[in-house]
Specification:
It is a single chain. The chain has 429 residues and is α+β, with helices and mostly antiparallel strands. Among the domains are: 10-107, 3-Layer(aba) Sandwich (Rossmann fold), CATH 3.40.50.20; 128-189, ATP-grasp fold, A domain (Dna Ligase, domain 1), CATH 3.30.1490.20. It has twelve helices and 24 strands. The chain has helices at 19-29, 60-69, 81-84, 87-93, 103-110, 112-122, 138-144, 169-183, 243-262, 297-301, 309-317, 399-411; strands spanning 10-16, 34-41, 51-52, 74-77, 98-99, 129-133, 150-154, 163-166, 185-189, 195-203, 208-210, 215-216, 219-221, 225-228, 233-236, 270-278, 284-290, 332-339, 352-354, 368-372, 375-378, 381-384, 388-396, 414-415. A five-stranded parallel β-sheet has the order 3-2-1-4-5. The longest helix has 20 residues, at 243-262. The protein is globular, with a radius of gyration of 21 Å.
């Protein structure tokens, strides 16, 4: 393993080009250990902190070659697709540390079915489910769970859009039939009422560290109305995760998963995103696992880590997390996402964004900053290039102050037709 612990001399490659990757580059930019950051493909925000390179991310060998040519010490993978495409496996062969699990373990996100099977094996609490295929009696399966809305999940990477929750029988049946026709099978789940939260857990073969719990807002409009999105805003820590519930999450979910994942031939190295549903009795159930930082949860969780971010990510990529004492700021963070007109169904791109503050944030207490997502630069101007364009984030000693700072910043930015939610963090304020 090529490890050189020379202060400030490490080179990092971040894979991805969204708000999450901008947050990772920001955290690494503020690290005392890092001398150079590359980001592939990156965006207009990462460009200010890193060297954007395009390593057409579906080809692992291009990435390996780049790492070798540029003496990269650590690869940090933002999105799930490269992990499901076994990027970490190929890097491991070349002894290049990678923050992100191997392909087989990335299946915890890549296949909802596989995730359910692991949960059953390990004894993690999750909703009851049935696997349906072309031989299944769909109507009787729907009858079984008809007391609540139906939850139907495609067993493929669908960019957060492969899940339908509905009380409409014919909509449920059509989605099941279409999913079986395209994927061969589909997952029908029991509906779990309660409040959602996310726990991001950094782990490797030696140890795990739970980051402060966060809460995302999935629906497009205020009051949790409108279609599901990739996430319209988040805050951290989430008060729904009380000390007691935190204890339950660790003992019933995180610890059993860690025991299983750390004992495999290649242990899990990276962050396990545990999507939770907390029932009214305070019992946590797993809704889903993701094998990477959530977006926008990453944008507000990372600033709460007091320990040098490079140290955390690097140690977790070489099974040395147990050697590190990871500390957190006693603070609150919140982010609000600005979305393009027409998002999520048909976002309109290519409009000019004005009012951006382009200073590089230090992420100190009382700071607010912009996380760039779908933003491209042309000359001196910035334009929208995605559905989720940017988010306004802040860190403060109280949640209400963090919310105030984020919204103040949002009010100074203009993008024609754009929309954002006004009630982020509302459940906790």
């Amino acid at each position: 393993m090529h490890q050189h612990y020379v202060m400030g001399d490490s080179k990092v490659l971040v894979i991805g080009g969204g708000g999450r990757e901008h947050a990772l580059c920001l955290g690494l930019h503020n690290s005392a250990q890092v001398s150079e950051i590359y980001c592939s493909p990156g965006n207009a925000g990462t460009e200010m902190l890193a060297k954007n390179v395009d390593l057409s991310n579906n080809d692992n060998s291009t990435i390996v070659e780049f790492c070798q040519d540029n003496s990269i010490d650590l690869v940090v993978v933002g999105p799930e697709a490269p992990l499901c495409n076994s990027l970490a496996d190929v890097l491991a062969e070349e002894k290049i540390p990678c923050f992100g699990p191997i392909g087989l373990l990335a299946n915890l996100e890549g296949s909802k079915l596989h995730a359910k099977e692991v949960m059953q094996l390990v004894g993690v609490p999750t909703a009851g489910f049935q696997i349906l295929d072309s031989d299944s009696d769909i109507e009787s399966a729907l009858d079984k769970y008809s007391a609540n809305p139906w939850v139907i999940k495609r067993d493929v990477l669908a960019g957060g859009k492969g899940v339908v929750v509905t009380s409409d029988f014919s909509e449920a049946k059509d989605f099941i039939i279409n999913s079986i026709n395209s994927d061969g099978k589909v997952l029908l789940e029991e509906f779990l009422p309660g409040e959602e939260a996310s726990m991001l857990v950094v782990m490797d073969g030696s140890d795990f560290v739970c980051l402060p719990a966060s809460q995302d807002h999935k629906r497009a409009y205020d009051g949790d109305e409108g279609p599901n999105t990739g996430g319209m805003g988040a805050y951290c820590p989430a008060p729904v995760i009380t000390d007691l519930i935190h204890e339950r999450v660790v003992s019933r979910i995180v610890k059993p998963m860690f025991d299983y994942l750390s004992n495999l031939e290649t242990p899990y190295r990276g962050v396990l995103y545990v999507g939770l549903m907390i029932t009214e009795n305070g019992d946590p159930n797993v809704v889903e696992f993701n094998v990477r930082f959530g977006d926008p949860e990453c944008q507000i969780t990372l600033p709460l880590i007091k320990t040098d971010l490079f140290d955390v990510l690097f140690h977790a990529s070489i099974d040395r997390l147990a050697d590190l004492d990871v500390e957190f700021h006693n603070a609150h963070a919140l982010t609000v996402v600005l979305a393009s007109e027409g998002y999520p169904s048909k976002p309109i791109k290519g409009r000019k964004i004005s009012g951006l503050n382009l200073e590089i944030p230090k992420l100190n207490m009382g700071d607010s900053w912009v996380n760039f997502a779908g933003v491209k630069q042309e000359g001196q101007d910035y334009f929208s290039s995605g559905g989720r364009v940017l988010s306004c984030s802040a860190i403060a000693s109280s949640l209400s102050e963090a919310a105030e700072l984020s919204y103040q910043l949002m009010n100074s930015i203009a993008l024609e037709g754009s929309h954002y939610r006004l009630d982020i963090g509302g459940k906790a304020l």
